[in-house]
Amino acid sequence: MTHVLLPAMCLLRRRDGVEQIGSALLAFGDGGGHRSIADRLGVPASTVRGWLRRFNAKAAFLAGQFVAVARRLDPSLGHIRGRGSPARKVLEAVGVAAAAAVRRFGPGNRWFFVSAVSGGRLLSNTNSPFQANS
Predict the structure, then answer these.
(1) Which of 66, 72, 60, 117 is nearest to 96 (CA)?
(2) Please, which residues have CB within 8 angstroms of residue 46's CB and are 6 or more apart in sequence?
(3) Is 29 part of a structural domain of the chain?
């Protein structure tokens, strides 16, 4: 078996970088459609549509996992409750976890953090890298 380390700037089985995908996810959370997001990023609409569909399909799971990451990084956090669409709830949880990481480790790239924490599997349909809750 061969193992390859995936840099934090990448997501598993995605050609585009995590920062570009993250920009699309943020625009989607703000109500953007896949065509307008694709035009702004200069990528095919079908690519963005695939990202958004996968993100929506995993939204509840991802929100819970990023809340758990945030709590591990900062046990003093109060109740974390996302508002709005499932996508917005994930993005809020990602923001809380990234802010907790900054407080604990110092500044860094938010989307590289997201990629690293998810093991590059943010939009993947493979096994989750997140620790199972006991």
Answers:
(1) 66
(2) none
(3) yes
Summarised one tens digit per residue, pLDDT across range 11-35 is: 878 888 899 999 999 999 999 999 9
Give per-residue pLDDT as tens, 83-103: 888 999 999 999 999 999 999
Residues 123 and 54: beta-carbon distance below 8 Å: yes
- The total number of structural domains that make up the chain: 1
pLDDT digits (tens, 9 = 90+) for 102-111: 999 999 999 9
Domain presence at residue 77? yes
- For 2, 33, 107, the CA distances from 29, given in Å and listed in that order, are 37, 10, 24
The residue type of 15 is: R
Instruction: Give pTM, 2 decimals.
Output: 0.87
